[in-house]
Amino acid sequence: MAKSTIYSALDLRDGFYQILMRESDIALTAVSTPSGMLWEWLVMPQGLNNAPATFNICVTHLLRSVRDFAPSYFDDVFVHSRAVNGKTDVEVHKEHLRKLLGLMRVLSGRTAYALTQRRSE
After folding, report:
1. Residues of the chain where predicted confidence (pLDDT) is lower than 50
2. I want to staple 75 with a disulfide (CB 3.0 to 4.6 A). Which of 12, 52, 91, 118 is the partner?
3. Inside any domain, residue 1
4. pTM confidence score
């Protein structure tokens, strides 16, 4: 990043809610309401002990193909570029952004955001 001349920062929307809960762990997220409803998270809620570390590992893994020019820190992705091979820094930066956004478009089909509900017995 030190020799780069142009930078962009992106924030991933609904961070933790993009990570599906393991089937065996869904019951561990149950919350009972005063009306008798039992809610379970199908996606990772905020506040779980290992949620930040799990989220960071997932993002780092999914964006590994672009990490040379787009490192991530939790839900933030920082794109940096410089002029190379006769291309201006802006041209290279546009290529980097297209590559990152294309990857994110492909990955977006693998996400979920939902709660299930059932009445507690």
Report:
1. 111-121
2. 12
3. no
4. 0.75
- Rounded alpha-carbon distances, angstroms, from residue 24 to 12, 43, 67, 109, 111: 27, 12, 32, 23, 18
Range of the domain at 101: 6-119
Distance, CA of 78 to CA of 61 (rounded, Å): 15
Strand order in the sheet with 76-81: 6-11, 76-81, 72-73
Q: What is the CATH number of the domain that holds 61?
A: 3.30.70
Residue with tokens 């590992």: 57
Write down how long the chain is. Answer: 121
Beta strands 37-41; 115-119: pairing state: antiparallel
Based on the number of CB atoms within 10 Å of its own CB, is 70 exposed (0-12), middle (13-18) or buried (19 or more)?
buried
Question: Domain count of the chain?
Answer: 1
What share of the chain in percent tops pLDDT 70? 89
Residue with tokens 């201006």: 88
